[in-house]
Sequence to fold (140 residues):
Amino acid sequence: MTEKTLVILKPDCMEKKLAGTVLARFEAADLEVKACKMIRMTDPVLREHYAHLIDKPFFGFLSNYMKRNPVIVLVLEGENAIATTRKILGPTKSADAPAGTIRGDFGDKEIVTFNICHASDSPESATAEISRFFKPEEVF
Ligand code: IDP
Ligand code: MG
Fold:
């Protein structure tokens, strides 16, 4: 099934100059860029995007990290794009992520929050997240 998913190259990805490396991994898995923009995250967007974490003690730390530098937001399309993207990314905790995954290779092993890249985790979240960041006419 051809799907679209939302990917965010987080501030640590940009700071480490890994945008090209990370995108190349997705493209090598036959995922295609359908939308792309660079933005700085804001509190209202982060409260929506991370609504499931708003009551966690680390929410403020997460927000500050996500705002500290601009990010690149992408829509990727391909066969089973949502699951494929998550697999290439690896689990949330970079310390638990296998070598060869993006988080395993580049994420911070001590600070869970600094894990390089976001990807939608379900068809429902992909739809909501794509429309959070892109107008319909911005997705090619
Ligand atoms: P995901 O990014 O793998 O989908 P979520 O549970 O949706 O993981 O969490 C969103 C982001 O919040 C993570 O990518 C990470 O940056 C941060 N985060 C998640 N759990 C923790 C934690 O236990 N401590 C600190 N930061 C966390
Ligand atoms: Mg998530």
